Every structure is written in C-alpha cells, then in structure tokens.
Amino acid sequence: LQSKRYLWTLSFYAQFFDVDTSAVLNRCLSALVPRRPFLDILDGNPDLYGPFWIATTVVFILFLTGTISQYLASHHDKTFVYNFKLLSGAAGLVYGYTAFVPVALWAALKWFGSSGATLGERDSGISLIECWALYGYANVIWIPVALISWSPVAVLNYVFVALGFAVSAGFLTRNLWPVVSVTEAKVSKVLVIAVVGLHAGLAIAIKFLFFAAGPAATKTKGDAPPADGAGESVVRALMGM
Question: Which of 193, 231, 235, 237 lies closest to 214 in space, CA to CA?
C-alpha cells in the first residue's frame, strides 16, 4: 500500500522530481512541436524537475547573451563592466513568472469551478502541479531564442522574441483552453486574454531588459538615447533594475 504524503514531508515534494531524462526530453519536445494535448503527455504524472532546470537554464542564458548584447552595443569604446543586475533581473523575472502566474491562474480556475480539488492530483480540470509543469515547459522555447537574440540588429531581436512568444503563448492557450472553456463564456475569454497578456509582458520584458539594441548600459552623458530607450526604461523601472 502506498503511504500518504503530507505537505510538510520531503516525500511529498520528491514525487514531483521523480522523472527520468527521456520523459523530460519528450515533454520539452512536445512543448516545441505539439503532437497531442500536453496534459495527456503528462498522463497524471506532472513533474517540477524539468520546469526548474528549464527556468534555471533560461536565467543563465539570458544573463550570458544579455551581457554579450550590451558588450556589442558598447562599441568597445571603454572598459566593459559586467552588469550583474542582469542575472538577478533574469532570476526574478523567470522564476517569479513561472512560480506565481500558474498559482494565480489555478486559483482563478478553482474559484470559477474549473480546477481540480487537490494540489497534486487532478480530479477535474487541472491541478496546481500541472499548471506549474505547463508553464515550466512552455519556457523551453526561450532557450534557443535567448541563444540567438544577442544580435545588435534590433529587427532580428524583435523577430526572434516574437517567435518565442508565439510558440509559447500558442502552447499555453492550446492546452489551457479545454480547461478554461468549462467556465462561463465571458470568464473564459477574460482568462485567456489574461494568460496571453501576461505572457506578452514576459516577452516584452525579455526583449527590453536583455536584448535592447543600443548602448543603454554603457552610454555616457554625450550619447544619444538608443532607439529602444523609452520602452527599456519603463521595463527596468518596473523590474527595479
């Protein structure tokens, strides 16, 4: 007989990290190339191992490529200073979004009668752990996007980030719609708009915080403001950077 797992025990959380590499890779591939509903692929066994390491990888790649982007934008006119606020900003943005947005969505679905009744097992709708897994694996597209978005050419960066947004937002809405549509029509539309809007906010923050083409981080008093300066300033102010 399987023993009960309680919230205050390690075994409760360990069950969500009990997944092999092949399963994680299959789920990553399914997030990039949809074949069937992601909740069916999870098959009642969502994990947090993949989402954690995906988010961690995105954080460090954003820091690395964001630093390269700033270095190229500096035109090598003076000694380059690493901006470690990029690392803390990436961590706050990615971990915060991946941790708290799914909780808010799950709470809204539970309030409107579409979510399962438990934290870890899906009774009907979607469980909190499945929400975390869904959002966590949706982040996998940001790994290749971050790797190629350090170009000093602004148009290319916009295209790459827009592509990342389209793939990940499409993945989220496609898999959340069957759950969200159980609620009233107006509520379901508001929830979908909120999901897409918040995800657009993530994409915009990634673009302007890490891949703004222009010497934003290294400009002197005599420099002209970069093309992306206004939007970047707003996003940085919101992120405390």
Answer: 231
pTM: 0.79
C-alpha to C-alpha distance for 201 and 195, rounded to whole angstroms: 10
SS (H, E, C) 105-149: HHHHHHHCCCCCCCCCCCCCCCCHHHHHHHHHHHHHHHHHHHHHC
Q: Quote the Cα angle for 57-216-233, to 5°.
A: 85
**How far is Cα 146 from Cα 58, in angstroms, rounded to an integer?**
7
Can you tell me the distance from the alpha carbon of 41 to that of 52, in angstroms, rounded to the nearest whole number? 18
Residue range 63-106, pLDDT digits in tens: 988 888 777 777 665 676 777 788 888 899 999 999 999 999 99
d(CA 110, CA 99): 17
Which token pair is 211?
């891949």
Contacts of 222 (CB under 8 A, 6+ apart): none
What is the DSSP secondary structure assignment for residue 203, as one 8-state letter? H
Can you tell me the distance from the alpha carbon of 212 to that of 226, in angstroms, rounded to the nearest whole number? 8
By C-alpha distance, which of 135, 60, 55, 54 is closest to 95?
Answer: 55
Q: Which of 200, 228, 225 is nearest to 212 (CA)?
A: 228
User: 211-241 as b/e, with b when 16 or more CB fall inside 10 Å?
Assistant: bbbbbbbbeeeeeeebebbeebeebbeebeb
| pLDDT (tens digit per residue) in 154-199 | 888 899 999 999 999 999 999 999 888 888 889 999 999 999 999 9
Q: Which helix (H) or strand (E) holds 197?
A: helix 185-210
C-beta of residue 110 within 8 angstroms of C-beta of residue 179: no
Amino acid 241 reads: M
